[in-house]
Amino acid sequence: MPFFVPLWWPLCAVLLVRIASLPLASTWYRRTRDRHDWANPDVLPQTAREWLRDRAAALGVEIVVTDDRAKTSQNAFYPRTHTIQLTAEVAYKADPTAWAVAAHELGHAQFRRRYPGVVAVLFATQVPRLALVRVGAALALGNALFGLPGVTTVALAVLVLHAVLGWYPLVEEAYASAWAYRALRDEPAITPAHRRAIRATLAGAFGTYLLPRVAIAIALSQWWIVRAITGDGRLGELAALTGLGRAVMIAATAMAALAAALALSPRLDRALGRRIDVERHALPLLGVKLAWIVMQLAVIALVWDLRGDAAWAWCVMLALAPVVPQALSLVLAPTLLALTPVLLLGRRALVALAGPGLEHSAAYAAARARGEVELLAGNAAIGRIALRNPRAVTRAERALALHALAFVPLYVAYWLT
Ligand SMILES: [Zn+2]
């Protein structure tokens, strides 16, 4: 692919910016937080957990504290269970950086309570995002095969919409941080140095949301690379399926029909569900899923230049949508492999840049020891809380899950013509 060579470096640069954005922002955040943590001794009158207790209770919000022994240990607000999760390193520290994190999570609870309408809109905007990125990427990737005029522009429009919707959660993050700062600013124990630490912590945390979105915007601004790879007018190369190709087509169609029968027949589904223990048969089920993905990719590869018309091209491009992550990994595998040394070096650099970790003062150790029972309870409960969190599937989500059926038109077109 000689046309690809001059485009390789810009493509690498764009990928690197996107891949590095979150680790960079996270490292910067932890470094900032650690620095301010060490600069301020843990001498506030309360730990973050104690500061939060009554304020959370007033909103009907429960608090659970977890550490590394839990399945997931992070600082988060779970709106569906009205629960704030704090890590032990935040909960048991009487430090302004810990207060900032705890207050930020309470800010999320405030936002949800005060602006249910805005929350509903925010949530609704997030539902189509997955479908948008899949379809956009499928069109961009598919049109590299066909070079149909206009399709790459449609793909860009779809991906820009996806990226724009990705900015909405920042509204809530910004609100939670602003609320946290206002709540802490006037606390009697908070000094000007504490206020600086709180501002820096909140700003650093916001950066972990902001930077990845900026990286996506930068990546999309370099769309000329995709355009240059796609080119124009490669539609029209005709080919025929070999015997093996026909066999793949028949097997894939049979698998699709079986999947459809399973999806449509609750009785069959229940009967199989009783016999198939999803946990115990995780490996064979993964095998079936992998076989299905390979089959889909094989079908697309076999038929992409079979017929020279635009309707056929659209069918093939849409069929890519359900398998776009796998197709992209295949296409980008050589580039990612070449980037591996850079990524490894980058990781070492980030480790070197990382801060000293949080200050484990004697006050912290004592508070943490006092909280051991609460910690054990939190570690045990968080799985259930996180499990209750994935909410019931909405009708809109059900409708959007239909993008998984984007391969159907191609199969129908193949067997009908
Ligand atoms: Zn947040």
Walkthrough of the structure:
With 417 residues, this protein is mainly α. The chain is built from 19 helices and 3 strands. The chain has a 3-stranded mixed sheet with strand order 1-3-2. The longest helix has 35 residues, at 5-39. It starts with a helix and ends with a helix. Bound molecules: zinc ion (ZN). The site of zinc ion (ZN) has 4 residues, from helix 4 and helix 8. Zinc ion (ZN) binds at residues 104, 108, 173, 176.
List keywords for this structure.
mainly alpha, three-stranded mixed sheet, 72% helix, elongated, binds zinc ion
Name the helicity range.
Answer: over 70%
Strands in their spatial order, largest beta sheet:
1-3-2
Distance between the termini: 32 Å
Number of DSSP E strands:
3
Largest sheet: 3 strands, mixed
| Overall form | elongated
User: Order of SSEs, N→C?
Assistant: HHEEEHHHHHHHHHHHHHHHHH
Quick structural overview:
This protein has helices at 5-39, 48-58, 88-91, 96-114, 116-126, 129-146, 151-165, 169-185, 192-221, 224-230, 243-264, 266-275, 282-303, 310-319, 324-353, 362-370, 372-388, 395-400, 408-416; strands at residues 62-66, 76-78, 83-87. It is mostly helical and 417 residues long. The protein has two domains: 2-236 and 357-404, no CATH class; 243-304.
What's the SSE blueprint?
Layout: H1 5-39, H2 48-58, E1 62-66, E2 76-78, E3 83-87, H3 88-91, H4 96-114, H5 116-126, H6 129-146, H7 151-165, H8 169-185, H9 192-221, H10 224-230, H11 243-264, H12 266-275, H13 282-303, H14 310-319, H15 324-353, H16 362-370, H17 372-388, H18 395-400, H19 408-416
Helix pairs in contact: 1-9, 1-15, 2-4, 4-8, 4-9, 6-7, 6-14, 6-15, 7-9, 8-9, 11-13, 14-19
The site of zinc ion has 4 residues, from helix 4 and helix 8.
